[in-house]
Amino acid sequence: MDKEGSQDIAAEIFAQEDPIFRNKSLVEVEHVPSPERIVGRDDEIRALSTELRSAVNGDSPENVILYGETGTGKSLVAKHVAKAAKSNAGDVRIGTVYVDCSTDDTETQAISTIARTLNDESETDIRVPETGLAKAAYYTRLYTILDKLYDVVIIILDEADMHPDDQILMSLSRAVETGKTGCRIGLIAISNKVRWAEDLNDRVKSSLQPRELNFHSYDANQLRAILGHRRDAFREGVLSDDVIPLCAAYAAQDHGDARQAIDVLRNAGMLAQRDGSDTVTRDHVEDAKMEAEKDRFRDLIGGLTVQKKLVLSAVTALHKGTDDDEFSMAQIIETYTKLCEATGTSTRSDRRVRDFVRRLAFLDILELRKQNLGRAGGITIYARLQPDHDLDIVHQTAMDDDQFVVGEAESENASLDSF
């Protein structure tokens, strides 16, 4: 009887019409809008299209680096322009492929994804397994696929700075020159780091010869327009009048991040849904903003090792427990050691802790400053949380790990609550 009652409850819920969302996919961050819904990026679309124009004639497109803050439309524009090039190519066989380098974060993984995406096994008779081949074997199969199926390919490497080296840029940009393939290859490398292109290896720069396009942050008016184009994700009359302006204003105050604005709007709708409300209100937006910040940092640091989380927790604990703006490595190591004792975690060497701090800075979680104290003092490194990050959210997220268990034998001072 209980089982049947449970089934009835589930069936009843599934049969109900969603009171808030009409087409929720429109407010999913990964949703790629139709061209008429792309706001405030006409100049960037025009500039990138100009660089890739040769592709539709079967010639080599320029290699391009797109950089700018997260959520400024880089990936969206790259996908749109690559798709448009393919649609307008006539008899020229153009292939396009998108690679998320934060997921495919090694050269081998990225080449495997490119080869599998571009392959049509029924035409090439080539099988490309997801794993199991040497890097050179993946390259060989990729170039054979290109020669059999395409005249030109446009490869989008999103978050290209996540690769530990630039070898994939070197290999792909020189593939025609070195006789590996007759297919013309155009690369679009995307980075959130403004200075990433400057740090590329000189040999890579020489081979790539990239054009650079900077994507500026969206302003509040543009963000309102972007969200306005997604209003039909919701049922008629569900959004109160101040919801979209407030979502846009919050995002504009932070980084002009369209992803953040869309994320907050979607989460506000979901909170209204859970509350049983028939309207999305300002209160839902404010609660959603906080949840979005937590989600963003869960995504950012969720994959960090326990040791890196402890180092980050040491920095945030110092921020919360002192009036200082930045902290020396000695302070960080001392607090990290106390955290390890409190959580029953073995410590790492001072050198490894310094490596962890540098890695957190590479991920734009921490900010570093070097100070030369002269011959007697040497070089001292100071670290602090990036000023744009919310201290409470980062600290809470960093400390939220199932492996952080305080041993019963520890003293009262060795408690997570004291950090």
From TrEMBL:
It holds the Pfam family WHD_Cdc6. Gene3D superfamilies: 1.10.8.60, P-loop containing nucleotide triphosphate hydrolases, Winged helix-like DNA-binding domain superfamily/Winged helix DNA-binding domain. PROSITE patterns: SIGMA54_INTERACT_1. InterPro entries: AAA+_ATPase, AAA_16, Cdc6_C, Cdc6_lid, ORC1/CDC6, Orc1/Cdc6_arc, P-loop_NTPase, Sigma_54_int_dom_ATP-bd_1. Keywords: ATP-binding, DNA replication, Nucleotide-binding. Residues 60-227 form the AAA+ ATPase domain. CDD domains: AAA, Cdc6_C. ATP binds at residues 72-76, 218, 230. One of its GO terms (biological process) is DNA replication. One of its GO terms (molecular function) is ATP binding. Residues 312-398 form the Cdc6 C-terminal domain. Involved in regulation of DNA replication. HAMAP family: ORC1_type_DNA_replic_protein (MF_01407). NCBIfam families: orc1/cdc6 family replication initiation protein (TIGR02928). Belongs to the CDC6/cdc18 family. PANTHER family: CELL DIVISION CONTROL PROTEIN 6-RELATED, ORC1-TYPE DNA REPLICATION PROTEIN. This is ORC1-type DNA replication protein. It comes from Halogeometricum borinquense.
